[in-house]
Design a protein that fits this description.
This protein has 234 residues and is of the alpha+beta class. Helix content is 41%, strand content 23%. The model is unreliable at 10-28 (pLDDT under 50).
């Protein structure tokens, strides 16, 4: 009675080891390619037609179907272009090889060892994208912190360059008003969220920023009204 269970144990054990081994080999898998074009700061087109999304880095949007061109997007795209276009690179993969758009997800290295994903963040042309886990997450967070402290790229003049860029575009601002009894109101165009407590002001503003960038005027109205925003004419 003992032997079959023992055999089953060892069988499961070896299957587990084999699975871990395959996962490790996949995570360390590498490819060689030539970069045909930098589509933007964090996306590449290879000479074989494959698109590559750089793991762990997010640069300002240059070409997005819903979002406007963002601050420093052109500079970030040019930086990546100068780094990789026409050059042979090594691609290394992590736990997920493709995203939902069927793009390769990769760490990209030049022949001299330059780590493209990291270099973009180190020089202040992108942010550490930490929404999903990846093996260099902590290092990339450190690189972003150091770039910010040095005032590089996006972080130049403690961010004042971005504020000037935004105000010169003439976009509708998010207005915040202090009300009585530590309450607040937020106004955007002809919508207002009134009598909100201090602790929810920033979460609401963060959500509003996303909605304004990603929703059509019709969908934005539906979203705001549905969440209790009032339509006002003053």
């Amino acid at each position: 009675m003992i032997r079959p269970h023992g055999n089953l144990f060892f069988c499961c054990f070896f299957i587990l080891l084999f699975s871990i081994s395959l996962s490790f080999q996949f995570a360390m898998a590498e490819d060689q390619a030539v970069v045909n074009k930098a589509i933007d700061g964090d996306t590449l087109l290879l000479n074989n037609g494959e698109k590559v999304r750089l793991i762990g880095v997010d640069t300002p949007e240059l070409y997005h179907p819903l979002k406007p061109v963002q601050y420093f997007a052109k500079e970030a795209s040019l930086f990546t272009k100068n780094l990789v276009e026409g050059k042979e690179v090594k691609l290394e993969y992590d736990w997920q090889k493709r995203d939902k758009y069927n793009r390769l997800l990769a760490y990209v290295y030049l022949k001299d060892g330059t780590f493209i994903n990291a270099e973009i963040i180190k020089q202040g042309y992108g942010f550490a994208y930490i929404k999903y886990p990846f093996k260099y997450l902590e290092q990339f967070k450190t690189y972003e912190k150091e770039a910010r402290e040095k005032g590089l790229g996006l972080w130049k003049d403690s961010g004042e360059g971005e504020l000037k860029w935004v105000t010169q575009k003439g976009e509708q601002p998010f207005l915040i008003y202090a009300l009585e009894n530590d309450m607040w109101a937020i106004k955007y165009i002809n919508y207002a969220k009134i009598k909100i407590s201090s602790e929810v002001v920033m979460p609401i503003l963060a959500s509003l920023k996303i909605w304004v960038n990603e929703l059509s005027p019709k969908d934005l109205k539906k979203q705001l009204v549905g969440l209790g925003w009032k339509q006002i004419n003053y």
